[in-house]
Amino acid sequence: MPVVRDGRARDGRARDGAREGRPRPVGDRGAPAPDAGRAGARRRRAAEGRKRRARIVGGLAVIALVVLVGAAGVWAFSAFRGGPEPAADFAGPGGATVVVAVQPGDTAEQIAGEMADKGVTASSAAFYEAALQNSAITAVQPGYYRLQEGLPAADAVATLVDPAARVGQIQIAEGRQLHDTTDVNTGAVRKGIYTLISEASCAVGDGVPCVTYQQLDEAGAGDPAELGVADWARDAVSRVPDRDRQLEGLIAAGTWNVDPSASPAEMIRQLVTESAELYESTGLLETGANSGLDPYQVLVAASLIERESLPQDFAKVARVILNRLAIGQKLEFDSTVNYALDTTEVATTDVDRGTVTPWNTYASEGLPATPICSPGVGAVQAAENPEPGNWLYFVTINAQGDTLFTDNYQTHLDNIQKVEGGFLDSGR
After folding, report:
1. pLDDT at residue number 265
2. Low complexity bias: where (predicted)?
3. ∠ at Cα 369 (364, 375), nearest 5°?
């Protein structure tokens, strides 16, 4: 039977019972005639049959879709686990200590892979399933963590999210030096960067030996290129007269994560490389337009600024350095004298200042042979963009850091008389 659309058959003819203008047969009260009624009933039964079949087919299609989606989810999870069987897991207790790295941007799946690779868990899927049950996993920060081999997955997750598991984090304050220094007046030892690295490596415990201060000192005297020294510093570093000090200033102040299970050279290389990236982010490579110094010289100047002044005076001290270099006047900074002596003191003695070293700016013109500490970003930025001015002299007159600047030597001598309470007296 043709499909009807808008009162016309698909073949262009009129509806059944109305072809050629003939009237449609009707029975009593306008009902269809008997023959037409039977035909209509057959058509209605056929239509109802088609509707029932459509509903059955549609229902089966929905069921099939649900089954398909469910099967896809099971397949995806099973694929991550490695199969339909329960994920392999250790019964515990744990064994030897290992260090696990969490990299920036790692997902739970990636951490799970690291756990399995290090033998902490029997499978990545076991750790992943356990991580889904512990909301604290979302707070884990990039860094290095101490765990044990052979842990049940739930225990591995609980250990990872415990702050006590974190190791290898080093905080280097502005003005810190590579080596330990001793305060002249109190005898207190200020830990150097190598000591801080050593202590961070010793925090791991059994199974991971400490890296010693001596090992780091020896590694730091190695080939600058192998230690990650950037191209812009390599030539100057290769000419440093004391190899033990060649990396001074190249490990920046800040908070760093190092792998405590790495070798001494690997730790140093990581810190030197990441520090170079930090320094370069300040515009170090383009700084010559403002300071007239090359990048390594900027770092040297920044270290002097860090040791000689407080942040509010950084840019002024930077200008004093540049003004003196421009006219060939010695810098005469006590901090450079102390650096060569491995001691810390605001003041120095006549003997100290008269001792010629590659760092003593009383004895030689120009910048010292290396930075004398690790400068902070603020000091580096001040060296890159010194404050305009004609100052040649400055003196800090008290422990609060109040500093007086001038371009006149007599005024400078007068300012020295304002120093409070023996602040500049030497303890030697």
Report:
1. 97
2. 28-39
3. 115
The structure tokens 């010194």 sit at 386
- Give the distance from CA 283 to its chain's centroid: 19
What's the CA dihedral at 307, 309, 313, 315 to 10 degrees? Answer: -20
Helix (H) or strand (E) holding 367: none
Identify the sign of the CA torsion 251, 257, 263, 264: positive
Q: How open is the CA angle 346-239-183, to the nearest 5 degrees?
A: 20
Q: Which residues contact 160 (CB under 8 A, 6 or more apart)?
A: 100, 111, 137, 140, 145, 147
Token pair listed for 287 = 């700084």
CB-based contact 111:127 (threshold 8 Å): yes
Look-up of token digits 């004298």: 337
The token duo for 385 is 């963009």
Structure tokens at 25: 């047969």
Q: What is the C-alpha separation between 3 and 11, in angstroms, rounded?
A: 9
Residue 81 has pLDDT above 80, yes or no: no
Decide which of 1.10.10.10, 3.20.20.10, 2.40.100.10, 3.30.1490.480 is the CATH code for 97-167: 3.30.1490.480
- State the Cα angle at 200 between 194 and 203, rounded to 5°: 145
Alpha helices in 328-363 (DSSP H): 334-341, 350-354
Task: Please state, in angstroms and rounded to a whole number, the distance separating the CA atoms of residues 204 and 216.
Answer: 17
Q: What angle do CA 50, 51, 53 make, to 5 degrees?
A: 65
Query: 425 pLDDT band (50/70/90 cuts)?
Result: low
- Name the strand (E) or helix (H) holding 88: none
Q: How many helices (H) and strands (E) does the chain have?
A: 15, 12
pLDDT of residue 248: 98
Between CA 168 and CA 257 the distance in angstroms is 6
Domain boundaries, the chain: 97-167, 172-416
Q: Cα–Cα distance between 186 and 203 in angstroms, integer?
A: 28
pLDDT at 348 over 50: yes
Look at residue 427 in the predicted model and tell me its pLDDT.
63
